[in-house]
Write a structure and sequence with these properties.
disordered N terminus; 2 strands; about 5% strand; elongated; mainly alpha; about 150 residues
């Protein structure tokens, strides 16, 4: 059952500047999360790290898995990542409701498309990135800016 998040006010997609700040803060958050995960693996499975350092494919897939976990945990539980917390934004469905776990997982996987992040600057779609358009989600302001 989907619950409406916003009031009768129309959705206000977050601006490009906030989206760029989100990316930068979340890149830092992701690398911090990756570091913590790798330290946990180092303690519990030291042989994995030796294989990880030798195999590019294993490192690549480990990074994708940790990236996926970072966003699915953050956005799946709270609709917000650390970057969104900082900028006063959150991810919602196109209807303003809580996005499904499938939508969150889809938008996270779509972020791996080459040059996908450049879609925020495109005229098609009003600057809404592909990972939002194709997953049926949008990042909106939740903090009202002073008028």
């Amino acid at each position: 059952m989907e619950e409406a998040i916003l009031s009768d006010e129309p959705l206000r997609p977050a601006g490009k500047a906030k989206r760029i700040v989100n990316v930068m803060v979340d890149a830092f958050g992701y690398y911090l999360f990756l570091y913590v995960v790798m330290q946990g693996i180092k303690i519990t499975a030291p042989n994995f790290l030796a294989r990880w350092e030798q195999g590019q494919a294993l490192a690549f897939f480990t990074n994708i898995a940790v990236f996926f976990l970072y966003y699915v945990i953050c956005e799946g539980l709270t609709m917000r990542s650390p970057g969104k917390l900082l900028t006063g934004t959150k991810v919602v469905g196109f209807d303003g409701g809580i996005p499904s776990l499938g939508q969150i997982a889809g938008r996270t996987l779509l972020r791996h498309l080459p040059f996908e992040w450049l879609s925020i600057f495109g005229a098609n779609g009003g600057g809404i990135p592909l990972h939002d358009r194709w997953s049926g989600t949008v990042v909106v302001d939740i903090v009202k800016e002073p008028e």
